[in-house]
Amino acid sequence: METIETVHKDLTLYQELGAKTDSTQFQNWLNGGLLNEVDEAFVAETKEYWEGHYGKTINPSLHLAFMNYTGKRDVRVIPGRIMRREILPVLNDYNMSTFYGDKNLYDVLIDAPRSAETILKNINGIYFDTYHDSIDTENASKILLKNNTDLIIKPSQTNNGDGIRKLNVKDENIYLDGNIVTIYHLEDIYKENFMVQKAIQQHPTMAAPHPASVNTLRMVTFRWKDEIRYLFTFARFGKDNDIKDNATAGGIRLGVKDTGEFFNVAISDDGQMHTHHPTTGYCFADLEPIPNYDEFKQFAKDCHKNILHQNFISWDIIVGFDGKPLFLEANFVGTQSYYQLAAQKPMFGDLTEEVLQYVSNELKTNKPILLKKDRERLEQKKLRKQEKQKQELKQMQKQNVDLKKQNQELQSSLEKKNNELMTKNDELEDTKDKYNYIVHSKSWRFTQPFRSLLKMIKK
User: Fold this and answer.
1) 290 and 191 share a domain?
2) Last residue in a domain, options 359, 387, 404
3) Confidence of residue 331 (pLDDT cuts 50, 70, 90)
4) By three-state DSSP, how is residue 183 classified?
5) Range of the domain at 244
6) Which of 111, 301, 352, 388 could anchor a disulfide with 76, C-beta 3.0 to 4.6 Å?
7) What is the pLDDT of residues 116-163, one digit of tens each?
8) Is the same domain home to 110 and 135?
9) Basic and acidic residues bias located where (predicted)?
10) Which of 347, 366, 387 is the C-terminal boundary of a domain?
């Protein structure tokens, strides 16, 4: 077995095991110490499992990271690419993801019993109040100004915390980043399709590690065989005093046990492990369990009931100040590798073999629709390939023109040389004719004695 130092310096071992060592995730896990221990026997067992149950040779990087992070060797961990590109498109109808993902429709589609209170919506440039009545810009401004409290404004059709900012209303003025703004300024920033909600006072337990952000529980539910099942949860904490808790923006993920207790070690998107919050220094081992946790699990499952086209959903749930669950957002993708690392569980647990068999059979007969982002990425990849081929063809055509030109020049040169050769041959034949004429002439015969005498004298 190679030493840790050798492994870090030489990526050959990882490459031989099938790891994609040039990926950002691999580099993050390597630098974060999540690939220090390499168990080749476990990798072999993992590959055998996946070839047997799914018919594919997999990249074992996540399994090694999971082993290093949790201390558990679990072959059932789902590689991120397979989860995103193959399993989720079978489980979820991504033609419907934009519809279900519009935050302005949450209160209509999901109708959670408790959720963040939305006071104003902008849909395609038209304002709506809490009762879904359309209103003009002046009345929309009045709604903001009468809420003399902290507000949150965010786009309604984006993910990953994009565009989330805090508004403050005081003395009949709206403040954004300490500056007075009007609703027209907000329109300049957000254009259309955005929403304004009342800021939520979260439970002290969730606020403790990073009070500046609204920290959430990412709870995962799964509809399988006519039953909505709870899979796992991890908490997301913001950092650097940002109001967002988004993990892909550098935030922290900390697993939650089925009892509502927290694990002691968190992980960030750069692959670093944390026993203490990197901004506040809060010790995660000091966190109290989530109160009434069974209620949270049931709450997430109840929210799933109204979303019929998507079988796998990640819920952002807030622990309210009163210890009750509050719905915030629904997500249909997420960074699946970090889900399993943070939760310290394989995605589907004991259902893994059933799910893999089902997905494998579906993929044999149907081509699933990928997430819009992935479709766009593949289309861009296709366009780049076509552009590359076009450039290569253009280069080959140019080379062909150059070669034709060179060939023409060579043909011209060859023709010139042939003409010169023919001229020389003609001159040679002419010289031969003159020579034959001379040697057969009478004067040549008459002068023969003199030529012979001359040769003798020269000797």
Assistant:
1) no
2) 404
3) very high
4) helix
5) 92-114+202-347
6) 352
7) 999 999 999 999 999 999 999 999 999 999 998 899 999 999 876 788
8) no
9) 414-425
10) 347
In this structure, is the dihedral angle defined by the CA atoms of residues 302, 303, 308 and 313, taken in order, positive or negative? negative
User: Edge-to-edge, what's the strand order for the sheet holding 273-274?
Assistant: 273-274, 266-268, 252-256, 227-237, 216-224, 312-319, 325-331
Tokens of 408: 């023409």
pTM of the predicted structure, to 2 decimals: 0.80
Asked if 165 and 153 touch (Cβ cutoff 8 Å), the reply is: yes
CA-CA distances (angstroms) from residue 89 to 93, 97, 313, 366, 378?
A: 7, 11, 12, 11, 14
Return the H-helix or E-strand segment holding 53.
helix 40-53
- Same domain as 50, residue 139: no
Q: Kindly state whether residues 101 and 122 are assigned to the same domain.
A: no
Say what the pLDDT of residue 4 is: 44
Note whether 242 and 271 are within 8 A (CB): no
C-alpha to C-alpha distances, 150 to 63, 131, 409, 446, nearest whole angstrom = 43, 21, 80, 134
Task: Give residue-wise pLDDT tens across range 86-118.
Answer: 999 999 998 888 899 899 999 999 989 899 999
For residue 107, the one-letter residue type is: D
pLDDT of residue 246: 62
* Dihedral sign of CA atoms 301, 372, 356, 226 in order: positive
Q: Are residues 284 and 340 in the same domain?
A: yes
> How many domains does the structure of the chain reveal?
4
Count CB atoms within 10 A of the CB of residue 366: 10
- Alpha carbon distance 356, 362 (integer Å): 10
Residue 9 sits in the same domain as residue 60: yes
Please check whether residue 143 lies inside any domain of the structure.
yes
